Amino acid sequence: MTSTTGSVPLSIESSVGWRSDIGALLLLAELRLHQRDQRLAGGAQFVPSRRCRRTNAPATRRLRADAEFRTLPIIALTALAMPGDRERCLAAGMDDYVPKPVSTSTIAAALRRCLETDVPDPSPVRPVVTASERAVTPVLDWQAIHELTGIAGLFPRSAERFLDSAPHELADLRAMGLGVFAFAAILILVVRPASVLLSTIGSALGSAAPGAMISIAPGRYEENLVIHKLVTLTAAEGLGTVEVVARRGSVLVASAEAVQLNGLILNCEDDKVTAVDVVAGEVAFDHCEIGGGAWATLYARGSGSLALRGCKVTAPGGAGIVTASPSVSTVEDTEIVDVGSSAVVVAERGAAVLRRCVITRPKGNALCANGAANLQAEQCEIVGAAKPAIVTEDAARATLARLTVSDSASVDLYLRSKGKVTVTDSSFDGAAVQSAHIAGGSAPILTGCVFTGAGHNAIQVNGSAPQFTRCSVRDTPIGIAVDEGSAPRFEHVDLEETTRVAVHIGAESRAAFSALRVNAAAGAGIVVVGGSAVRLSDAEIESPSSALEASGNSAVEASDVRVASSAEAAITLSGAARATLVSLLVRGGGLCAVEDSRLSLLDSEIVGAAGHGVDLLSGATATLT
Questions:
Q1: What are phi and psi of 150, to 5 degrees?
Q2: How much is the mean pLDDT over the chain?
Q3: Helix, strand and coil percent figures for the chain, each rounded to 5
Q4: 380-385, long-range: CB within 8 Å, 24+ apart, which pairs?
Q5: Cβ distance 534 to 508 under 8 Å?
Q6: Which residues contact 390 (CB under 8 A, 6 or more apart)?
Q7: Where are the alpha helices (DSSP H) in 176-282?
Q8: Cis before 156 (ω within 30)
Q9: Under-50 pLDDT residues of the chain
Q10: CA distances for 512 relative to 489, 505, 537, 556, 589, angstroms
Q11: Cβ-count burial of 43 within 10 angstroms (0-12 exposed, 13-18 middle, 19+ buried)?
């Protein structure tokens, strides 16, 4: 709406803000002076207050035409009070009138009159204007305006723009020499009577418009929240002050485009349904606590997704988070504890991204991806998983980076998926059985990983073809065990402080090592059995026992290998084993071949052997060049 007085155009802009916890509607009519292209003749032009007052009646009639607001009290506030204003406002359908000077106490008093209940005086708020802006002789009472924003709690956007831009517009007009002029704003406050104040979150959801923000007073609410519209739920007085509990049924079921929850505690006591069920859209939890007693606490299905940031998830009776939806769920800076089965399950075509999460002592897996799922996890910490800490199965894909996994009761990594799996720059410590178990025909790529303190062996490969690059193994009885026809590759892998055998290859497997470093505390360095084959290049093997043993029709191809051993036979061939050794340097022990074994030794050196340099027994043959 626009009107003019003299040569100064006047524009009116209105907007509405909703505050569900007090049931208040704010309508701000903002009036601005706009400069013309040329300097105005005669200096200042004044805006008569009657032009402002004329906007009250149409706004009030529009509100009264809406059935929701037909009986609601309306309080008019104006910064320009003239004789007859009160009567005109009341005649227009308003219920009360507060003239300037407007303060928090006068607003509170008007609310008391309309609501017939106690409305506390709001605390003063700190003005947001700067000292330099306040230094100009004020046309508006800025302190009073900012106190009003404290009363409203949620000021309309047009009011925020008005408060932000008004000082600059005043300065611009002063700089043009326009002198003193007038600014005016009309604020209409619509309040719900006490008899219809919203006492449940469900009723607030029912009356809220799409996009509304509902601010929830502190307390415990026994409700089942069902959300079908875009909305934000916020704990009015901060984290942990609002608890929503469902005794039967889910505490939250959502199918809206987007739902945001801030600082809430959600608990479901029903052991038959998930605490949170997201069927469609995204539900975002910011610094919330969510607990459930059924098979899962949070469940995303259909096209639904979850977004957790800074949350805590508990699930004594089941899984913490389960997603089977292809819409990506994101979990960041979240703690998952007291979990009765797996902490996070990504199933079917589900997709999930975890960042900087902590998972403590789940009674199942910490992370599990199966079906055709896609899991990404980075900078997460997993402690004390009762079952394999990280599991990939079926055709699931996983991208794992900078993880810290410790104290697993069985296995840290259990990878048997045929989908693409990468594990990068992660550490695995103290697994009771194995650090990594790779099986089922999988071919994961592990880079920059550290495996320490496994109870039996650090790496177990069964029927698979993984690739390890720049990885290290320390302090375990068996470093690497390869079985069941596997074909792994190891590049720049270090093994230290193994006590039984550093590398064991069996059951017709094929393994390739490049830049291998072995420093065994006890036991053998590399053992090859069962018709298996190994290729070594640029390897260093140091062991107090034999450095290399091959038997059972196995084969060894080695080039540029350096061996140090205190055993009489640093390298042993038996059971028709075959070995081709090129550019071999052996210190401290010799070579022994027995039982129809065949040895081919080229360009090699044996130094300081306690017994024979090369010892051939029981039909063994050798070619030395």
A1: -65, -35
A2: 80
A3: 15, 45, 40
A4: 380/354, 380/355, 380/356, 380/404, 381/357, 381/405, 382/406, 382/408, 383/358, 383/359, 383/407, 384/360, 384/408, 384/409, 385/359, 385/361, 385/409
A5: no
A6: 365, 366, 367, 368, 377, 382, 398, 400, 403, 405, 412, 413, 414, 415
A7: 201-207
A8: no
A9: 1-56, 80, 117-142, 144-145, 147-159, 162-163, 169-170, 173-174, 176-196
A10: 5, 11, 8, 10, 24
A11: exposed
Burial group, residue 351, by CB count within 10 angstroms (0-12, 13-18, 19+): buried
Residue 540 near residue 570, CB atoms below 8 Å: no
> Is the Cβ–Cβ distance between 460 and 481 less than 8 Å?
yes
Checking 587-596 for CB contacts under 8 A at 24+ apart, the result is 587/562, 587/563, 588/564, 589/546, 589/547, 589/563, 589/565, 590/614, 590/615, 591/615, 592/617, 593/617, 593/620, 593/621, 593/622, 594/618, 594/619, 594/620, 595/619, 595/620, 596/620
Comparing CA positions, the residue from 286, 243, 300 lying closest to residue 268 is 243
Strand pairing category for 489-491 and 467-469 = parallel
SS3 of 85-103? HHHHHHHCCCCEEEECCCC
Residue 11, number of CB atoms within 10 A of its CB? 12
Strand pairing class (524-528; 494-505)? parallel
Contact by Cβ (8 Å): 214, 204: yes
Q: Which pair of structure tokens corresponds to residue 119? A: 């409305």
Residue carrying the six token digits 């006590």: 499
Amino acid occupying residue 247: R
- Is the Cβ–Cβ distance between 508 and 486 less than 8 Å? no
Instruction: Give the span between the Cα atoms of 429 and 600, in whole angstroms.
Output: 41
Q: For 364, what's the count of Cα atoms within 13 Å in the CB-facing half-sphere?
A: 21
CB 99 within 8 A of CB 78: yes
Which residue has 């790496």 as its token pair?
A: 459
β-strands 489-491, 457-462: how paired?
unpaired
Number of helices and strands in the chain (H, E): 8, 54
Strand ranges in 224-291 using DSSP code E only, listed in sequence order: 225-227, 231-235, 242-246, 252-254, 258-262, 264-268, 276-286, 289-291
Look up the pTM and report it. Answer: 0.71
pLDDT tens, 585-610? 999 999 999 989 999 999 999 998 88
Tokens of 44: 């200042």
| Alpha-carbon span 606 to 588, nearest angstrom | 8
Per DSSP bridges, beta strands 411-415 and 434-438 are parallel
Burial of 220 (0-12, 13-18, 19+ CB in 10 A): exposed
- Whole-angstrom Cα distance, residue 352 to residue 330? 6
Paired sense of beta strands 24-33 and 184-191, if any: antiparallel
Q: Which two tokens stand for residue 279?
A: 């069927």
CA-to-CA distance for 613 and 592, rounded, in angstroms?
A: 8
The residue ranges of DSSP E strands in 7-117, in sequence order, are: 8-19, 24-33, 74-78, 96-99
Total length of the chain: 625
Do β-strands 2-5 and 8-19 pair in parallel, antiparallel, or remain unpaired? antiparallel
Task: Give the contacts of 131 (CB within 8 A, at least 6 positions apart).
Answer: none
SS3 157: helix
pLDDT in tens, 4-47: 222 222 222 222 233 333 333 333 333 333 332 322 222 322 22
Tell me the DSSP string of 308-358.
EES-EEEETTSEEEEE--SSPEEEES-EEEEESS-SEEE-TT-EEEEES-E
Contact 216, 235 (CB under 8 A): yes
